[in-house]
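sorry for the late reply, my laptop died twice this morning and i had to redo everyting from scratch. anyway the thing you sent over, i finally got around to it. pasting the sequence first so we're on the same page, its 128 residues, then the predicted structure underneath. double check i copied it right bc i was rushing
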Amino acid sequence: MPKNSMTALAVAVAGGSSIAAWCKKTGVSRRSAYRWARTTEFRAMVADCRRRATDRAVGRLARHAARAVDQIVALAQTAESEAVRLNAARAVLAELLAVQGHAELERRMAQVEEQVRARKPGEPARSS
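ok and here's the structure:
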């Protein structure tokens, strides 16, 4: 199995391309590509590509988040329209609650992962 071709196919599939379209573009046989696509290694490569793409997107959003919050807060404080001020204030509160909820879930997941790592093989799971 040519590793470079399989990697290229995984990147294409992770980006939304079909296997058939990728084969037509690259000249790789569909039979080979579909055989690669059935492997655990290929599925892991696609998942890893998607995870990295998501991480990059989240990073870009995070870089712009503070500026967006500043703009919403400024609207909430200075907009002439009472409706605009109210909607901006609601947006700040809604986003704060969403971020807090996400942070709490992340904290809880970290606790569960730590408990799993600390558990000895064969030891039953503890109920909380």
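The CA atoms of residues 10 and 46 lie 5 Å apart.
thats about all i looked at so far, will dig more tmrw
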